[in-house]
Amino acid sequence: MTKAERALETRERILKAACEVIADIGFENVSMRKVAEHAGVSKALLHYHFDTREKLFAEAMTHSFAQTGTDLDGGDADVPAGVLLARIVRTMLPTDEELRQDWKLWQELWVRAQRDDAARHLAVDLYDQLHAWVGGAVERGVASGEFAPCDVAAISTLILALCDGLGIRVMLADPRVDLSTAQSTIWSAIAPSLGISPAFPET
């Protein structure tokens, strides 16, 4: 392994550890020492890669976001747009332990964004990327004729808003909203505009 490869591997290990620690105890309780210990590196090495907690938090959020939902069509352009969109919806809800960790990180970001401009700009940028991700799947369905012509931006905004609102209820273990209810509610809300069945697809 080259020096550059070792540095990249160390950086990835630190970011993974930071995501886990922040999700576990909250950003306000995180110290660089705790992240270094969890990553199995020295505090000096951690500071070599990230000189402040704030920069580490921003990089951890970006890292977590980048790991979410990559290659949902498996590289197969023939995957129906409805299936792809359903997979995106599932990925934007806390459907497994890894995604629940992502949700905890998002919740930390929402709180910080209320009082920190850098966090607010990061949140807005990540939402722009989510909007483009959802919009791309909708546009794909419209282009193929699988979805009816629609206001792609409005549908994308609606999907993100529903995922956020219902996802929080799932995270709270609200007995009125489980994952199945969240998925079916989102799908039935967008189905009329897309001209598709309101039943959530098998993915």
TrEMBL record:
InterPro entries (UniProt xref): BetI_C, Homeodomain-like_sf, HTH-type_TetR-like_transc_reg, HTH_TetR, Tet_transcr_reg_TetR-rel_C_sf
Domain of life: Bacteria
UniProt KW keywords: DNA-binding, Repressor, Transcription, Transcription regulation
Protein name in the entry: TetR family transcriptional regulator
Feature: DNA-binding region: 31-50
Domain HTH tetR-type: 8-68
Molecular function via GO: DNA-binding transcription factor activity; transcription cis-regulatory region binding
